[in-house]
């Protein structure tokens, strides 16, 4: 299936010259003060970065994403329909004709957001209903001369096309001053990433040289540049590499002085600098250090830990998807009753005893029906389990706890008069 066949228009628009501009990452990466060039792929070679992006993208992708419908005071989940390929089907079964899984689809979206600041979900109006991801490094929002918003996407063959904004759900983080273009974490953290990559290379060279010390050698007489290189090469061949560690170096009488320069990594505060860089990376991604196998975990319940993580980090990714999906994927009439929702409770990993206690209280107070609680436990319901229950010793505040009794004989008079 050709992607171009899904385009609803082949119109070439005239772009407004002062419109928003996407800051593309240079193909060779960003230049940093550490001397290292940082790109999206090289940043993933940092263990802390790799772990952080997987934690966030995996947790979002694992959450069920459902379409809900409000009918009066009741809320019900919209069931997937493979015939019409409704949004419930695309979000819970497979989003496109390539049979991607919902996990694969949502994880890709979050990773585009994290590193490029933008994620573009295209819902073509031509062909079967489906959701496709437009690579953020080849897509940018543009305005035509009349002020209409389009999304300019450049195919691999370098041919640009313009997609109407109604077909594209644009998700972004760290918006620029225009509010139309996002910026990824690498835009702000590239210096930290660069220092961390440089530290990895320094450590690798340290081990590759077999702990060989740097040294200053004084030779008898004056040497040409070629001769100095030969002496240096001979020393490195004898001493570099792990297999040559702690070997004896033998020099002839042409060398009048050999002075090793021993700089230990700990003396240069090497380990401390690595620790500081990793701590900064945790802050850039909004994750606690213990989640990245660093530091000591605070003594609190798993539920409280994940509530803080949900509110402080994940909601900034979840809420825009929920709100944007309601606007882009539903008709104006459907928006009144339908909406999209991540099941955040799936992240709150309570222990079995706590989970049972919470569900019991919710059933007793009329919040959940027994069948709804059983569904959370992935168990079968029963015929009478859809009723709500409440404790019998609870009554409305407006109710009179001591209703006045009729005076003696008044009831008989009333009946006689009637």
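^ Assign residues to that structure.
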């Amino acid at each position: 299936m050709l992607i171009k066949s899904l385009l609803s228009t082949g119109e070439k628009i005239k772009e407004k010259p002062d419109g928003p501009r996407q800051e593309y990452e240079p193909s060779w990466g960003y230049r940093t003060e550490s001397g290292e060039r940082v790109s999206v792929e090289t940043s993933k070679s940092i263990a802390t970065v790799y772990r952080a992006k997987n934690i966030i993208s995996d947790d979002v992708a694992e959450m069920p994403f459902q379409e809900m419908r409000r009918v009066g005071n009741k809320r019900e989940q919209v069931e997937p329909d493979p015939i019409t390929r409704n949004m419930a089907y695309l979000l819970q079964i497979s989003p496109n004709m390539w049979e991607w899984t919902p996990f694969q689809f949502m994880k890709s979206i979050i990773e585009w957001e994290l590193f490029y600041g933008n994620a573009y979900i295209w819902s073509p109006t031509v062909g079967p209903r489906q959701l496709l991801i437009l690579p953020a490094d080849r897509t940018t929002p543009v305005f035509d001369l009349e002020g209409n918003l389009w999304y300019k996407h450049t195919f691999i063959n370098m041919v640009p096309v313009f997609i109407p904004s109604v077909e594209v759900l644009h998700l972004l983080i760290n918006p620029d001053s225009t509010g139309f273009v996002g910026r990824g974490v690498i835009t702000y953290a590239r210096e930290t990433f660069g220092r961390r990559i440089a530290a990895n290379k320094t450590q690798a060279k340290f081990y590759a040289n077999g702990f060989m010390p740097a040294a200053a050698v004084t030779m008898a007489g004056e040497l040409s540049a070629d001769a100095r290189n030969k002496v240096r090469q001979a020393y490195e061949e004898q001493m570099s590499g792990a297999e040559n560690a702690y070997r004896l170096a033998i020099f002839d009488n042409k060398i009048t002085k050999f002075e090793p320069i021993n700089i230990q990594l700990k003396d240069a505060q090497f380990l401390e600098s690595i620790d500081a860089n990793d701590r900064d990376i945790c802050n850039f991604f909004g994750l606690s250090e213990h989640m990245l196998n660093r530091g000591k975990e605070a003594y609190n319940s798993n539920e409280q830990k994940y509530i803080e993580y949900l509110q402080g980090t994940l909601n900034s990714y979840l809420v825009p998807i929920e709100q944007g999906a309601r606007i882009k994927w539903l008709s104006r009439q459907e928006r009144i009753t339908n909406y999209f929702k991540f099941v955040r409770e799936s992240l709150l990993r309570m222990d079995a005893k706590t989970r049972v206690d919470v569900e019991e209280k919710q059933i007793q107070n009329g919040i959940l029906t027994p069948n709804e609680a059983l569904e959370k436990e992935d168990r079968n319901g029963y015929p009478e389990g859809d009723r709500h229950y409440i404790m019998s010793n609870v009554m409305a505040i407006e109710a009179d706890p001591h209703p006045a009794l009729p005076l003696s004989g008044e009831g008989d008079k009333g009946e006689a008069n009637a």
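DSSP finds twelve helices and 13 strands in the chain.
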